[in-house]
Please model this.
Amino acid sequence: MVQVEGLTKLYGDFTAVNELTFSIQPGEVVGLVGPNGAGKTTTLRCLAGIIPPSRGTVRVCGHDLASDALAAKKQLAFFTDEPRLFDYLTVWQHLNFVARIYQVTDYEKIGATLLEELELAPKRDALPGELSRGMKQKLVIACGLLHSPKVIYFDEPLTGLDPYGIRRMKDSILQRARDGAAIIISSHLLHLVQEICSRILILKNGKKIADGSLAEVTHKFSQTAGDASLEDIFFRATSEPAAPPVLPGEAP
Amino acid sequence: MIAAFLYLQIVSARNRLVSRFQRLRQPKYLLGAVVGGLYFYFYFFRYLFLGHNGRVAQAALPPEYGAVVESLAALLLFIIVLLAWLLPGDRAALTFTEAEVAFFFPAPVSRRMLVQFKLVRSQLRIFFSALLLTLFSRRFGGHVLIHAFGWWLILSTMSLHFLGASFARTLLLDHGISNRRRRLLVTALAAGLGIFVWQWAKKTLPPPTAADTADLTALANYAQQVLHTGPAEGLLYPFHLLARPFFAADAAAFFSALAPALLLFLLHYLWVTFADVAFEEASIEASQKLAERVAAMRAGNWQAAKKTQKAKRAWFRLTPTGPAATALLWKNLICVGQIFTARLWLILAIIVIALVAGFGQSSHAENLGTVAVIIIAAVLGYSLLLGPQLLRLDFRHDLPQAEILKTFPLRGWQIALGEILAPVVVLAGFQWLLVLIGFGLVLFLPGKHAALIVAIGLSAACVLPVLDFLLLLIPNAAVLLFPSWVQAGKDSPRGIEATGQRLIFAIGQLLALLVALVPATLGFLAVYYPLKLAIGPITPIPFAALAATVIVAAEAALGVWWLGRFFERLDVTEAVGN
Model:
């Protein structure tokens, strides 16, 4: 579904993403983790065709994102960490707009179902300004899923969601994967990644330092294979000591 | 505590100034500051140093109008105060920033202290406004210090009055007097006073004769008679007190007018500081809204930055299939809002046709028609200059959403076309309406140059939409090429350097337009002159305009293609920031 080869993104002398190569199969949920500045968001933006890579190729469902961008983008959905909506379009107008962009002929039926599923139906004529953050997130998801994408990227999908929203989001991601979509989730929430991802990809300073199932990554970085959490693995892999927080009054 | 507030203000202002100066290391800000500084000097500041022999003296108000202008100013202040009691409906909400709410509200700071802080903070804005207004009003004569202090007094007192009115409004609401009842009371009071003054003037003053309206001086004298005698004088007295220092002719007059005005200011100050009105809850809400608006403005989303938004109806039904660029046009037209609905266009057209028909019945129809055609031509010209600056529902509006646009399965030229179409539609619609009025004038009025007007009107209707498109391409290209110069991004410049940058861009845009118009002009002339020899001077105009339209359209198409290619390659992270 997604083939990435030698993906590199340079900003002047700074290398944000360095020779990244991996592929994702249908139904796979890949967790993209790494410390701040590791290049996760830049990688996702390159994979979504938002920013052009400096080097390397990205293929989505067999279409090269550089030479056949339209066909590739038709199969994609990218959910940013902040719900980005058009302030002056209502909930339903957003769906109408996206339907024309992606040429979704039966959008009225799909849209109505999505709004029902996401509990947005009563807000059909509301502007984004009238929605809570969670509702905005749901609207973004409805817009993204309207054209039934085969490849989905999430950048910090749980930011700002309440426990119900988190549960629904996790269920929704897993359901899409079961339906055959290839999914990449970039997140700092390691327990989320551990819970729902079938594969982990750890980045550090723009470079891939681990790629595999949780067991494989654990085996690579743990002396006591099998009993370490992703958090332990993350700190070992990125060479950051997992120091406990120092509480007021305690000696450092 | 007030020392802490002053410290915050002074340190914030100092740091802001330092960062402004540090920013001048970047050439774009330095150049902008130089051009902006020159503009401000030549347009405003040099008048501060001119004596009465310069342009100031020429623009100065004749002394015989001084009294009536002061009365009119007092009347204006009265109306503003009346509206402050009539229109607003919300509870008192001193607007703090979110940081101020977070630091002050949980701190041991009394309500009165918070009001004091707001007053201290508002002074910075008032000083700046007073300075700008002085730069402007000084051009019409008077002493610079008198004007500056006069403006400060007026603005400060009015600001205190607005705050006091909002406190009073809250108290009324707390006592069960709804906004509706308050508005009814204020309206009844204003109407009663208005009728009283009108009746008095009718009974006491002679009705205006032809001599009273013969010239401006006579008219001013009559107005002064109405405003400065009887009940109107009493009604406007406090407002005269406030305005008088500003209109003082010399230092002696200023100082004699100063004490009553300062007393008025002091009374307002005591009113707002001793009014114990709970404003905290509304203030927290207001600060959140302010933060959202500021964030929207900093992201360049001025539409979202507006105080209230309402869901707007789409201009047309968007089917799920068809050219994808239409979706962007559809979206941006929704943003244009209910102001430019089809119903409005229809109403405008009906009004205009009715007016033209009315002119047709007039004995001065021919003169009126000629004047109207000249006005239409001038407005059309200005629409070409100002329209692309005012209608910004294109890349200038959507650049902060570039990340979304880039994920769409659309070619760059489709996005560019879709983005630019909405302002073109609105602008061309307005211009066509004007052309329609021109045609109406020709149809209804006896005119000497009807054929010429029709030929020019047809030509304008033909060429204007593509010309609008071309004109809109220029700022759109600029915003993609130099986003940090044009866009209202997170580090958007303000002040003198921003004015300078805008001037540089305006000049650049004009130059680019002139270059783009050269081929069209040559095409026009190439068609016009041969035809003129064959069929006369007027009939070839629309044909030549058609040739020019084709050339401009080709240039516009090329521009859209190029802009699209550029957008495809644009790195939104660099252009818009994270």
Summary: DSSP finds nine helices and ten strands in chain A. Chain A has a mean pLDDT of 85.
